[in-house]
Specification:
The chain has about 170 residues and is of the alpha/beta class. It has helices spanning about 60-75, 95-100, 120-130, 140-155, 160-165, 165-170; strands at about 1-10, 35-45, 50-55, 80-85, 105-110. It is elongated.
Length: about 170
């Protein structure tokens, strides 16, 4: 099982994107003046395109460990290779202890400053385009529910494995 993981922050403030509107009727996007936010951990199954998602109030090692547990429980008795970036909360004693306790999980870290290599970034982009751009939702929990529903109810095809000749490359994880 090969998954690509990452985190995204969700703000109540609407972001803008191009939209069609009748001539002379400029669309209006309300902007929330606050900075209320939630964070999402996500992992994309590179074979099926399905998403594992978890909300978090903070992005710290403790939250990362909870997400890793969710990932291990989602694929019981399977070897998992997690492709992850080098965020500070992806390292430290809590992460190392979790990996020792769960030998079916292995982490491969992307090179520094390379979000373009992470397929999960495309999932966030798609969810933002469908849910958070140009929205009129005025409650963060409602927006988060819509964001999470989009992630869990859709699949996100990824060609990364095909591009890199998946079977020979990752035979030990099958």
């Amino acid at each position: 099982m090969i998954v690509a993981g990452d985190e995204a922050s969700l703000y109540l403030q609407a972001t803008r994107q191009v939209v069609w509107a009748p001539v002379g009727q400029t669309p209006v996007v309300k902007v929330d003046p606050g900075r209320a936010n939630l964070h999402f951990y996500g992992a994309l199954d590179l074979q099926t395109g399905k998403e594992i998602v978890m909300r978090a109030t903070v992005m710290k090692a403790v939250s990362s460990v909870l997400f890793l547990l969710k990932l291990v429980l989602a694929y019981p008795n399977r070897k998992i290779l997690l492709l992850w970036d080098r965020a500070p909360w992806h390292f430290g004693p809590a992460i190392r202890n979790f990996l020792v306790a769960h030998p079916t999980l292995e982490i491969f870290y992307f090179p520094p400053a390379s979000p373009d290599l992470n397929p999960q970034e495309h999932v966030w982009k798609d969810a933002r385009a469908h849910v958070t751009h140009n929205h009129i939702i005025n409650k963060l929990d409602t927006l988060a529910d819509s964001f999470e529903a989009h992630l869990t109810q859709n699949t996100f095809p990824c060609s990364l494995l095909d591009l890199h000749n998946y079977p020979p490359l990752c035979a030990r994880f099958i």
